[in-house]
Amino acid sequence: MPDTAHGSARTHLALETFLPYRLSILSNTVSNAIARDYHEQFGLTVPEWRVMAVLGRFGPDAATGICSRTAMDKVTVSRAMTRLMDRDLITRNSDSADRRRVIARLTRKGRSIHDKIIPVALAHEEQLVAALSPAEAKTFGRLLTKLQDKADALTAP
Questions:
Q1: Phi, psi at 54, each rounded to 5°
Q2: How far is CA 55 from the centre of its chain?
Q3: Cα 112 from Cα 37, distance rounded (Å)
Q4: Cα 146 from chain centre
Q5: pLDDT, the chain, mean
Q6: Is there a contact between 38 and 117 (Cβ–Cβ < 8 Å)?
Q7: Which residues contact 89 (CB under 8 A, 6 or more apart)?
Q8: How far is C-alpha 128 from the geometric centre of its chain's CA atoms?
Q9: Rounded Cα distance, 104 and 43, in Å
């Protein structure tokens, strides 16, 4: 892309306008704000909550499925799952169809905490989206989907 100030190809990276950087900063800012509530009220880290959110939304799953749904690496998911097991929020058992596969599921206690966090998470979303008009929010949702689809295509094997 030409640099209009110099008429040549770009040779620097303006982080303040670089989309991946801006998305990362926004994501981290929002996650950190929500993480304070998760930690203060429920003693959970962001990775722990993400594991619980996936299990609460999609049901029992293996670590690889949780990794793909959260874009977290396997080590992060494994550590989060271990901490959740230590607190009796999830269980992990061998899959009856494939003994090599281990399936995680929320315990009754885990489901209870999950259900208490949902209103907290939705309140954060509502506060953030309040910066947009309803039309902007709808457009933004569509744009996020397009960007995610393109990112998935770029990273597909």
A1: -65, -45
A2: 13
A3: 16
A4: 17
A5: 91
A6: yes
A7: 48, 52, 106, 107, 109, 110, 113
A8: 16
A9: 20
Q: Within its chain, how far is the Cα of 157 from the centroid?
A: 22
Cβ(47)–Cβ(77) under 8 Å? yes
Cβ atoms 47, 79 nearer than 8 A: yes
Other Cβ atoms less than 10 A from the Cβ of 154: the count is 7
* Whether the model pTM is above 0.90: no
Calpha distance 46→32 (Å, rounded): 8
Do 70 and 12 touch, CB atoms closer than 8 A? no
Question: For residue 127, how many other CB atoms are within 10 A of its CB?
Answer: 11
Strand order in the sheet with 102-106: 61-62, 102-106, 90-94
Grouping H, G, I as helix, E, B as strand and the rest as coil, residue 26 is: helix
Cβ-Cβ contacts under 8 Å for 95 (sequence gap 6 or more): 62, 101, 102, 103
Query: What are the tens digits of pLDDT across the range 31-62?
Result: 888 889 889 999 999 999 999 999 999 999 99
The pLDDT of residue 9 is 62
Task: Please give the Cα distance from 33 to 148 (Å, whole number).
Answer: 23
Q: Which of helix, strand or coil describes residue 7? A: coil
Give the torsion through C-alpha atoms of 93, 38, 54, 137, to 10 deg.
180
Give the chain's domains with CATH numbers: 18-155 (1.10.10.10)
